[in-house]
Structures are given as structure tokens and as C-alpha cells.
Amino acid sequence: MHAPTRALLVLMVAALVGSLTDFAVADPADTSGTDTDRGGVLQEVVVTAEKRSSTVQDTPISMTAVTGDLMQQQGITNLNGIIQSVPGISVRTAGPGQTELEMRGMSSSGGASPTVGFYLDDYPLSPPAAALNGKVVVDPDLFDLSRVEVLRGPQGTLYGSGSMGGTVKLVTNAPQLDSFKSAAEVTASGTVGGGFNRGGSLMLNLPVVQDSLALRVVLTDKYVDGWINRVVLGEAFPVPTNPGPCGGGWPGCTRGDVAAVTPEEVVPRINWTRLEGGRANLLWQPSEALKINALAMYQKLDMGDYSQYDLPPGIPDARYQPFNVGEPIYDIFRLYGVTISYDMGFAQLTSATSYYSREESQTQDDSEALYSVVGLFGASIPQFYNIPFNETDTTQVTSEELRLASTGSGPLQWIGGVFFTDFKSVFTEYNASVPLAFISVGGAAANPLGLIYQANNPYYIKQYAVFGEGTYAFTDNWKLTAGVRLYRFNSHADEETAGFATSSGNAGQTLNSFSQSNSGTNPKVTLSYESNHQLTLYSTVARGFRPGGINQQIPASICTINTETYGPDSTWNYEVGEKARLLDNNLVVNSDFYYIHWSQVQQIINQTCGYPLTENAGTAASYGPEIEINARLSPQWTLTFSGTYTHSTLTSVNPTISAADPALVPGLAILNIPKYTETTSLNYTRPAFGDFNFTARLNNSLVGPETDIEYTYAQLPSYDLVGLRFGLANEKMSAYLFADNLTDKRAELGINTTAFAWTIPSVERVVTNQPRTIGIDVNYKF
Fold first, then answer.
1. Average of pLDDT values for 268-295?
2. How far apart, in Å, are the Cα atoms of 353 and each of 340, 341, 413, 422, 519?
3. What is the tally of helices (H) and strands (E) in the chain?
4. Helices (DSSP H) in 571-724: which residue ranges?
5. Which pLDDT tens digit goes with each residue over 510-520?
6. Calpha distance 641→629 (Å, rounded)
7. How far is Cα 79 from Cα 81, in angstroms, rounded to an integer?
8. Are 723 and 741 in contact (CB under 8 A)?
9. β-bridge partners, 517
10. What is the DSSP string of 365-412?
11. What pTM was estimated for this model as a whole?
């Protein structure tokens, strides 16, 4: 057991023993949920996971909901904080805006669509189709959210493709029609090895026409300083050695001793981050039955560089490069949506229309990788290898959902609707070196600009769906839910590549077009038992689905496999679960066990040539338990625990694929899935002075080992992170001191998540977390 985990458990036991003498029973009328307010009472959380209002405890789905108030108390401001507090969800990440979500052993590292759906209100936020950093979702600031809902398991009936592992839904606060409200937050902190971090957020709720029209505006500006240094070695940069063991064609399989070279320059704190954004919600309610909510959101994320270090040598705050080439990233997204709801008496009619655009641009120093690919000019890396590699991914999505949901309290509840998305994702890359043009097919005359790799690949997906779900209560306790989604996907890609590392071998363009159509049904059946809102038991069988896709063009003369397309994959999920409120609602225990059969797994494979691609690798199985416990130990002490164990491996392998990737064998772990995760927190609250309460929170997040891929498969070790937060709060104001990553753990979160072109055997980049950060967080509601 890890030392921080042991220490936390000792504190928990001591707190439990100390609290037994003054244990008090809460009022059961107020204590029926899984959220905790400043007074330590367990409260109801209302959710819309089934696209109608319910509570977490009464919804027969494995899910977690974290309210905006709780996020503020715990200092959760981004997706990473949500992930650390929810079982069954993990990430593959290279920093803010570079996060890929995984649930229940379903990796998103391959394919054109993710395995986890991501929504803001009713609007889908789709990741780019072909980005080489994966199915990365936007990382919006979470200030002034109503809640975050995390739904585990296939949500293929109500949410469709991209949700076969689960769905994450961010729910904004609706404008209030009857009163002016405002809130502000200011943070300031310092990071070990970094500089001064600061941020501010503001919310204004403005009634424009009393009880009819209101506007809610949220603005955010935050800066986090970097802690990684770029160590520039110049042309003395050591070239790789030990050719041969990693496969033919590489000048060396072992990186030179970069730590032994005297640097020409050290550029400090390169991985800084600046977030600027805002959103506006306009609510118009011309009558009791009709509501129109318009939303506009903008966010810009600028990063100086990736939060990565080199292995070897494995110094967690150093990146070694031949030349002083920055690797900036920017990520801009815009969302416009209109939701119209009309109460028809017997049912609620809802239309949700949105347009979403996102542009990501990344630059990478490609000199070391390019030298390994070309292998020219002996024992140095000349300046003409000093070639940045740029990738841009532009995504545009138009979506429409029209649904009708029954109202009332009869034994039959139903929902049905239609859904459409028009998705366009354009992937471009550019890399050129005039001095290397001579190695092109036909010499420099056939490639005067020295194009190495240039690509322009627009990718289109149109999705059509009809869905319906009904729940029938055939006794006071028993309910049967059945649903189905009929879907069709039409995918099309145009590919244009040029350069001496492409099929043409020179500036000549290689043009291809590919199309695919996938259609089918996603059924779901749930049988549930509910007793007096204190116990819910359920059993679910559901199917999930993801469409096929198109790979980048790979030169046939270089790689063993250059498959142009891959087929769809699908899952069948079987689970049983319970949700129980015990001890007069002072203890809430939610748990489940699931088994998933995954067919035609879309997974990234790497060949010895260094070009990654997606293939239908074979079949897989994923299973394990998930549990959440919320306990009120006394009027002052509360304890929360969540954990999961995930067994997710290939059970059979496509023999054609295993011939190119011999390490791809039955029993190989699915990529980027931790073996286990656990989060434990101990909270203390008591009156301080006036109407202020003193609150303190100690939490520990443990993430087990997982398998990732760069040139070969690699095992990432387990890690745990400890946080401490305490301060004073009342209904209007709070002030907290916090220490994130209290033990200053440097975790390995992923490897080579930003390899644009070639994965090389001599080096891998390791994504790491923010070192110990200590600061203050002040919130005020006007």
C-alpha cells in the first residue's frame, strides 16, 4: 500500500473512532442524496441523465453527479478534478485541452469517434476525427456550472454513437428570471519549479424583463505557469546508438547520453497555460408552458508547450532538444445553441439545436525524430534538421435533436425523438526541409520545397437516428425499461498527401477518397426494483456502437500494413447494481458489477516502420466492480470513497494484424485503462464565528498501472495524489487555503500522446502532472 494511502487511512480510522462518541442522526426528510453541503448533510442531487428530471438514487443507471457548489468547495475547476473524484473513468492526456476520456475499459485511442460521449447541456461536443493526439475533448472551465453528470456504461439509446463506454454531461446554470445575482472567484498559487499562478471568474445574472427574460453571463481568465525546462544542446546533441534490435532502417535504438552534454541554453517553465473564455445564457419564458434558452460560449486555450519530459534520461522537469524550437498549442472553441421546450400537458416537447466549432494547432520539434527516420550525416544533428512539424485540426458540428417526453405520474413513462449531426473535421500537417529535398524520388527537382510530409484530409460524418425508450411500473416497486435507437452513419474522407515520406516520394500529390456507411440498432433493457426511495436494485443489458473510419495514407513500400479503412466496433454491456440509503440516510452506498464484450476493437497499433494506424484488432472483454460510499460519521465528519477495479484485455487477435505487431496477443491490456482507481476524502465542518463554518478536506486519489503505446507497448506505474484544503465559508463568501499534490508526486500520466508523425525507438516522452501547488481560493456571492 502506498504511504499516502496508509496515512490517509490512519486519519480516517482516528476520525471514525473519535466521532463515535458524538454521532448524531440527521433529519431523514432532508438527507436522501449523495452530495454534501457545508453543514455535512447528505443531500439530494437532481439529474437529467434520462433526459427527464430524477435523482441519482432513483435513476437505475451507474452514475455520479457532482454539483457546482460541491465543485467550488472542493476546488474542482476542470475535467481532471472531476475524473479524480469519479470511479470508472480515466484519461489519456497531455495537458488541458489534450484529454481523451475512457470508461469501463473502453479505450478511445483508436478510431474516428470516441468511446465516451461529451455534452454541454443537450449539445454534443465532438473531438476531431483524425488528430494524432487522439480523441481529445475540450476542457471548459467549470465555474458556475449547475452540475456534472457522469453516466457509466453504454448510453446508446438516448445518446448514441460515441457513448458506448459512457457519457459525460456538463449542465449549466439557467438564468433566473426574478432576481439579480452575481458571483466572483479569485485564485492565486505557486507551483514547485514554477512561477505565480492566478485566475479570476465572474458571473452576472440579469433579469431583463421581470419573470419573462433573463441573461446570465460568465467570464473567466486564468494563467498557470510552467514547470518544465527546455534544455537546448545544439549540434552537439548525441545521435542514437545500438542499431538493429528495434528493427531494420533505424540508425540506432538507444538514445545518446543527453544529460552528459553541456547545454547551449536552458529555457525555463515552457509549459505555461492561459485560458480565456465566457458564456452567455439568455432565457425567454413568454408563457408558463414555453421556454426558449439560447447559449453562446467561447474559450481560448494557449499553451507554451506540453507537460512532458524525456525518457531517457527521465528527469521530470527537463525536455532535451537539439534546437530551441518551441512547441506552442492553441485551442479555440465556439458553441451556439438554442433549446426550446413546450409543455403540451401530456408531454414535454424539446428541440435542441447547436453549432460547434473548434480549431486546434500544435507545433512539434521534429529534429530528433527526423534524424532517426532519415539517418544521414553521421554523429551530429545538423541545423537543417531543425524543422518544426505543424498539425491543425478544425472541427465543425451541426446537431439537432427533437424529442417528446411524457409527463405526469402514471405507470407508463416514455420518451422518443429524432437526432441528426453533420460533422466535418479537417486534418492538416506540414513538415519541409529544403536541404533534404535531394533524397526525394526524382531528386530535388521533383521536390524543390523539400516537402517531408504534407497532408490535407477533410473527414465528413453524417449521423441519423430515431430513438425511443419507455418505462412501465407494473407494481409499486418494479419497473421495466426498454429502449432502442435506430442509426445510420455516412462517412466520407478525402486524402491529399505529398512529400518524400509519403507514397509519392516527392512533391507529387497522392489523392484518395473513401466512403463508408454503417447502420443498425442499439437496444437496451433495464429491470429495476425500488423500495421507498431507500433502495434501488437494477439489472441492465445494453448495446453500444461506433462507426468505422479511414486511416491516413501510409507508404506501402515502408510499412507492412497500410490498411486504408477499418470497420465499426460494438459492445454488449451486462450489469447489476444497487443504490442504498442506510442509517437514517447517513450512509449512501452505490455499487455495480459489469461485464462488457467488445467486438472488432478499434485500436492503435504501431509497426516497426514508426507509422501508427487504427485497425480492428480483435475482440476484448472488460469487467469489474464500481463502488461509491458517502458516510456522515458525525455532525462534523463526513467520509467519501469511490473505487473501481477494471480487467480489460484482448481475448482474440486478428491474425493479419498480429503479423505486423507481434506484441498484439490475447491477454494484452486495452490501452490507457488503469487496473484500478480509488478516491478517498475526509471532510470536517464545524461552526467558527458568526455564520461562518470552518471546513477542511483531505483527499487521496490512487490510479493503478496501465498500458500505453509509443514505438512499443509500455507499462505506466501506479501513482497516488494527495490534496489538502481548508478555510471559512458561509452562504455568501468562502476563502480556502489549498495544497494540491501535497507530496509532490511526479506521476507518469501517458507516453507519446503528441507524436505527430513517427514514433521512434530511441526516446519516448512522458506526460506528467503539476507538482505541489499551494495557494488561496476566494469566492464571493453578491
1. 96
2. 9, 12, 24, 12, 23
3. 5, 46
4. 655-660
5. 998 888 898 99
6. 5
7. 5
8. yes
9. 490
10. E-HHHHHHHH--STTS--GGG--EEEEEEEEEEEEEEEEEEE-SSSSE
11. 0.90
